[in-house]
Design brief:
alpha/beta, ECO RI Endonuclease, Chain A, 5-stranded mixed β-sheet, disordered N terminus
Length: 168
C-alpha cells in the first residue's frame, strides 16, 4: 500500500511504500531503459556492492542504487539517472541528496540526470526548488527534466541514450 493514501503520517510507515502508480511508472521507465541501453565503452552498475563502495568512496557507510543506474567509462563515473515523483507536500527530494552527493564525491564532473514528475515538479514547487538549489550547490552538470504530467518511455530512453552518448 502506498503511504500517499489514508492517514499519511510523514515518513515511510511500516507496511507502506513511497511509491504510488505514477511513481512506480517513472521508476519502471528508468529501470527498463537502463537495462536495454547499450553504449560501447560504458559499464552500468545498478547498485554498489561492498567492493564498489570501498573502491570508489573508501567506506561502506552508505547505499548507492540510482534508479537508472550509475554509468562508468573505465573507473570514471560519467552519468547517473534518478527518478523523482512528488506531490505538493512531500519530501522525496530529501532522499535525492544522498545519491547526488555520493556521485559528486566520486566524480565532481559526473552528469547527474533527474526525471521529475507530479505536481511537485511544476515551476516554483519543491522539485523545481531542488533543481535550482542543486544547480547552485552542485553545478550545472546536474540536469533536471521536469514534467508534472510524467514522461513516456520513449522520452526517458532517448534522454538517457543521448546523455550517455554525450559522455563518450
Amino acid at each position: 500500500m502506498s503511504q500517499r493514501v489514508n492517514n499519511f503520517k510523514g515518513g515511510i510507515q511500516s507496511g507502506t511504500t513511497a511509491l504510488d502508480a505514477d511513481s512506480s511508472k517513472l521508476d519502471k521507465q528508468l529501470k527498463e531503459s537502463r537495462d536495454n541501453i547499450r553504449v560501447p565503452d560504458l559499464k552500468m552498475i545498478k547498485q554498489f556492492s561492498y567492493e564498489d563502495k570501498i573502491k570508489y568512496v573508501g567506506d561502506n557507510c552508505f547505499g548507492f542504487a540510482p534508479d537508472g543506474g550509475a554509468w562508468f567509462k573505465g573507473d570514471k563515473l560519467v552519468a547517473v539517472f534518478e527518478a523523482k515523483k512528488q506531490g505538493l507536500g512531500g519530501n522525496a527530494y530529501e532522499r535525492w541528496w544522498d545519491n547526488a552527493c555520493t556521485a559528486k564525491h566520486i566524480n565532481p564532473d559526473v552528469v547527474y540526470v533527474t526525471f521529475c514528475s507530479g505536481p511537485g515538479s511544476a515551476q516554483g514547487q519543491c522539485l523545481d526548488n531542488l533543481r535550482r538549489k542543486a544547480n547552485i550547490m552542485l553545478g550545472e552538470n546536474f540536469k533536471f527534466y521536469m514534467s508534472p504530467e510524467g514522461f513516456t518511455f520513449d522520452q526517458v530512453s532517448a534522454i538517457m541514450q543521448e546523455t550517455l552518448e554525450g559522455t563518450l
